[in-house]
Amino acid sequence: MKKLSALFFFSFLSFVLFVTNLQAQSAPEDYFVGTWNVKAYSLPQGDTDMIIQLDKKDGKLSGGIVDAATKKVKTPFSKIDVADNTLTAHFFAQEEGVEVYLTMSKKDDKNITGSIMDMFRMEGSKGK
After folding, report:
1. Mean pLDDT, residues 106-124 taken together
2. Coil, strand or helix: which one is 110?
3. Element (H or E) spanning 7, and its range?
4. Fewest C-beta in 10 Å: which of 4, 43, 91, 112?
5. Cβ-contact 82, 32 below 8 angstroms
6. What is the DSSP string of 12-71?
7. Closest C-alpha to 101, from 122, 84, 83, 77
8. Cα angle: 48, vertex 66, 114; to 5 degrees
9. Could you say which residues form the signal peptide (predicted)?
10. Of 1, 4, 22, 2, which Cα lies nearest the Cα of 12?
11. How far apart (Å, rounded) are the C-alpha atoms in residues 102 and 22?
12. How far is CA 57 from CA 22, 34, 41, 45, 61, in A?
């Protein structure tokens, strides 16, 4: 009877640890959800501060570049992909009339590195 009780206890404990572990794991894109304060370096117009907003709705990421004055997305992303802790977002640059992409890679819990069109370096941190 003691062996049965011990077996039941360890089975229950294993189940609890398994469920806790599943809850702790999140999809890679969940890291990027939120507001990011980003600086892009050496753009034609000079170093540029940007606010990037990413939301997840029904399991799908959406968002864009936010207008600092209105706090609303002014340049929406047309396509967002996440692979290996790197997000790639496509958007239409109205000034140039072309589709542009940016990448954001996880540096640590609150910071990213990346680039625009693999030419202009970016760094950023998670907003509050």
Report:
1. 97
2. coil
3. helix 2-24
4. 4
5. yes
6. HHHHHHHHHHHHH---GGGGG-EEEEEEEEEETTEEEEEEEEEEEETTEEEEEEEPTTT-
7. 77
8. 50
9. 1-26
10. 4
11. 31
12. 21, 12, 31, 34, 7
* Residue carrying the six token digits 């570049």: 65
CA distance 63 to 9: 47
Mean per-residue pLDDT for 44-59? 95
Smallest Cα–Cα separation from 117: which of 74, 97, 88, 80? 88
What are the extents of the domains in the chain? 28-126
User: To which H or E segment does residue 105 belong?
Assistant: strand 98-106
Give CA–CA dist 54/38, Å, rounded: 13
Query: What's the pLDDT score for residue 16?
Result: 43
Confidence tier at 94 by pLDDT (50, 70, 90): confident
Name which CATH class applies to 28-126: mainly beta
Tokens standing for residue 31: 């890291």
Q: What is the DSSP letter of 125?
A: E
Angle subtended at Cα 114 by Cα 77 and Cα 73, rounded to the nearest 5 degrees: 25
